[in-house]
Amino acid sequence: MTMIREPGDWQEDWCNFKPDEFRCSCCNRLEVASELLDVLQKARNTLGPLTLTSAYRCSDHNSKVSSTGLSGPHTTGFAVDIHVSNSQHRKLLISYFADKVSGLGIAKTFIHIDLLNNDLGFDARPNCWLY
Question: Which of 36, 95, 97, 107 matches a 20 to 30 Å C-alpha distance to 86?
């Protein structure tokens, strides 16, 4: 597991994403797992453009915007939310990611995906839920 914390660590393979898309909107910290970037880039290669609505969140920011408090999935660097434009797009994203991620959250305007597991302190995986 490799955590990307500096733009200089960005690999050419992740050419359709930029480090700034993964920064905390509160403190500007970059924290994203290379495995998650690999999954997202493969999805982008298959599905076309993906718009991230949320990626890494520092504990303070997460506690303000999520019921998961100071230590939710987004505080790990292993979770992102992807914008959903309509019901067909939602179905396409769910179908694509269902067997590739350990956490899948489904909302009207986004889907949440994560690669969390017991080793990272998330024993309720695999898991799927509705918002």
Answer: 36
Contact 101/115 with Cβ under 8 angstroms? yes
Indicate the residue type of 9. Answer: D
Helix spans in the chain (H): 34-47, 59-65, 87-97
Pairing of strands 103-106, 127-130: parallel
The CATH class of the 3-130 domain is alpha beta
Structure token digits, residue 44 = 């982008």
pLDDT tens for each residue of 27-76: 999 999 999 999 999 999 999 999 999 999 999 999 999 999 899 999 99
Q: 3-state SS of the chain: helix, strand, coil percent to 5?
A: 40, 20, 40
In the chain, domain spans: 3-130
pTM of the model: 0.96
